[in-house]
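cache lookup: miss for this entity combination. No prior model stored, computing from scratch. Input as submitted by user K.M.:
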Amino acid sequence: MIDHLSPILIGTLGAATPLVLAGLGELVAEKAGVMNLGVEGMMLIGAIAAFAAAVASDGSVTAGLLAGMLAGVLAASLFALLALSLAANQAACGLALTIFGVGLSAFIGQSYVSHSLAGLPALPLPGLSQIPWLGPILFRQDPVVYLAFLLYVAVAWVLARTRIGLILRAVGESPEAAHAIGYPVLGIRWAATLTGGAFAGLAGAYLSTVYTPLWVQNMTAGRGWISVALVVFATWKPTRLLLGACLFGGVTILQFHAQGLGLDLPVELLAALPYLATVIVLVLISRDRKLLRLNLPASLGKPFVPGR
Amino acid sequence: MTTRVQVEPRIRLIGITKRYHSLVANDQVSLQVAPGEIHAVLGENGAGKSTLMKVIYGAVRADDGELMWNGRQVEIDSPDAARRLGIGMVFQHFSLFETLTVVENIALVLDEPFDLAALAQRVESVSRAYGLPLDPHRPVHSLSVGERQRVEIVRCLLQKPQLLILDEPTSVLTPQAVLTLFDTLRKLAAEGVAILYISHKLHEIQALCDRATVMRSGRVTGEAIPREETPASLARMMIGRELPHCAIPAYLGQRRTVLEVRALSLRSEDPFGTSLEGIHLTVEAGEILGIAGISGNGQNELMAALSGETPTAADSVLLDGVPIGRLGAGQRRDRGLGFVPEERLGRGAVPAMSLARNALLTGHRKGMVRRGLVDYAAAVRFAAAIIERFGVRCSGPEALARALSGGNLQKFIVGREIAQSPRLLLVSQPTWGVDVGASAQLRQTLVDLSREGVAILVVSEELEELFEICDRIAVLAGGRLSAPQPRAATDAEAIGLLMAGHSMSAAA
Amino acid sequence: MNLLEPRAEPSRTLQWAAPPIAIGLMLVAGSVLFLLLGRDPVQAFRVFFIQPLESGYGWSELLLKAGPLVLIAEGLAIGFRARIYNIGAEGQLIFGAICAGGVAIHAAGHETAWTLPLMVVAGAAGGMFWGAIPALLKTRFNAEETLTTLMLTYVANYFLSWLVHGVWRDPAGMNFPQSVMFGDGALFPVLTEGNRLNASIFIPLASVLVFQLLVKRSFLAYRLEVGGQAPLAARYAGFPAGATVWVSLCLSGLTAGLAGVGEVAGPIGQLNLNLSPGYGYAAIIVAYLGRLHPLGIALSGLLMALLYLGGEAAQMTLQLPAAITGLFQGMLLFFLLGADAFIDNRLRLPRRTA
């Protein structure tokens, strides 16, 4: 059994990485009160931008990741312009961004369908990767996995320990009060939204240039939406988000190892598992209304127009 | 006035004008405050006081006029700029963040290195020095309303303000807590802080303030030394005529119990709310029962339980002797209950809908819906009748609810509920944010309705209002209700003690 | 950062002018795109928007595509008015199609006059069921319907995939993931020879009238609208909040399911993995573009159908990816949301601070 388990666990972190990245970005935006349902679209735009940049730069993954982040920021700025500066309905703007991202990435991606990239080799961390059993699972990953973990630490620290984190939480709870005591609410929300875009773009870039280094239409396959759900599941706490993403990474990877585990289940059921699991965790967490209310940024999804 | 020692005014406003669309909120307003002076800005709701304060605090930009600070002309274009000058503001609707702790709330406004531990110590020492004790690590949602105001004041004090603005600070305080606040303010004034005190409560201004600027419809209508005036003379300056009073006739009809509440207990759905514990009360036909207390002590929960928004145990609420605790809000309305909620826009009325469509909200019972289809012509007629009967000033039944002033919308909502001939009417904060004329009309309407044999329950934060119109008064504090007393058998001080006593035990 | 200042009164003109403005802006952005791609915009627009309508066949295809879009959007609009965001109509369409397809597959070879009506009922019920699950999860467990409806779309897709790879696979289908072709008794009759437009078009037509009555006159729609605009007012008036959720999701599931029937018992004629070119998502845009108004939706549905046809034409004539349709859809919704902001507000030009 344990022999079959470790390949799953090794794959889990890689599968969790796009969820961690996109989820952290959405968490930052939601902390400031911005509900951006366009994560899926931003990931796709990031993925195709990264792939195109990597192809153009002779397979440079770094160029791809940077291009993905930049594209994610640009995509997020479309959302911010509408949902923040023009105070449009955030849910509708997020949907629009996703529809746009699906269309744009498919449109650009048409000419990249036959390409593939080399990806990134694993980077075993000296010493740590020699630890029996745990070493290969945790410390023989590609560099982006480590980067995602570092970003988790950074986001958790900023939110819990710094003035910037405090300001984000304040704006997310009551933009009116934050405005009254003199904070530029829209500016802060713009910054949080663009940060979310950069994270989502990076997540998409990781998918297309490292995780499965080729372009497939709609290759994010709902991971953006799952990330949004994970933020709720995590009750807006970075550590729970990290754990939730790993859980989902494991569920996602399960379908490739089911036979090895002796699970004789239809492949479609296994493939549907992450989505079913998302519904289940949403139900489990949302039924506790008090828990949600105590953690939910109170102004989440509500437009703010200064001076109204 | 010339006998005063000439000192440079701390702040001086010259000809401040601010327009919103066609409305002139401030029209050529001038005033000045000296260091150490407690200066009242007196005016009723909508007179332009709050706009003026926002101009001073940099939250709103004046269209015209000058602002002098310690003799120097300044532009205050943001609250941040105001704070840097040394202006502190205690807001009417608090600007605190519920899920953050006291010290986090305070850190947000201070321009200094981020060190919560050190700041917590300073919060404790400053709050103790001014008689406003606070635990810096409590989250704000666990504080009583009075404690929250302390946070606001301490937050200002830590910025060492030269001018402190307080906007209607006593509306959330018990009469005893008001005295404590006044002591604090006098101490600050003695230290040289200039204080701008915004209020519409005449006796408070007379008790506290050195000078007063009176505003009406955006203009300065007078300046006075409050101690040398009478409430009547101040009121004349404020509203341009005598304060209207209610006529309270005796009830001659049959006495019987309409509403009975027995041992009502209810856990609040809101994690920041107050649970109700063992509430007993009765309201008779022909009387108004007043429920005093500071908001947040279970008022919302009580109204939700009585109106049916939150169903309760069947026999804890009885209407005409019939248990209705399990019934929902619609079913209770079918049985003769009317309800005027505290929030008019968004609860009592849908902001972006016309008055006619808002009439339908509860008035659909009056034959406006047949076989699932709405008779909009009937709704328009119903709305027009309310507008006519209660003198609602608006462009007609097609006017959007959000386009009406607070007083006119309240008249419409009260009118809509009364037009359905209720046997029991629940009213929450009947005149909150309503101008003096409309308030008087609304109070008289309630009194007259009760004398027709309707049982009325009024929840209000305004003690004066309750003493004016209620036959009996009880106090809701910490989710418990005191025994109702006939109006003549109690007074503001006794009620205030009940408000304070219970809220202290609730906070502990 | 803030580009708005509130108007005293919402602009009535803009309320109706916003969709045409958004369409105009989309065309401008489209021209820029065509120029960037080195195509002549005038020719491109001819291919995209005129050519598809130059033949009777083109018009029949337009109606064929507009049908499901309008039908789904009518149902969604009811929910959107109540601020219930069902974004999983695609899944409800698929599940409705599966249920209708199941009836057809079981009846294969011995269809009766009841087969097609039964398929319609099964499809409607199936779509409704798939919409009722998120309704249950929302009312009982407070789970966000945006996420659950979307997740269930993926689940419906995999369920369909499992069926057509397995038990319902056409044994004579060379192992392609598809069911048998349905018999004539399980298909809507084609209206005129030579094109694919069939009798199912009467369902969306009827739905426009039914929803027009529902929205304009019914107390139900009034209650849903109050629930959406001011949930506290609905609670105050005693309109049950759960009912809003159930009605919105069941109704939009039902129309999506019906649209699914129209596809499998219409142009597709079997179950396969390409039941819908994203009608469930495009209908969201149709609903907003039509101002959530039943008649407006009929118009915007036609426009969206034209975008689909134009995308196909562009692929064939201009060798552009068909995904250009999705791009136009996204832009359209963006521009619409932007234009809508100015109904209640006017543009605030950033003031110069010296």
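stored under new cache key. Chain C touches chain B through 21 residues (CB under 8 Å).
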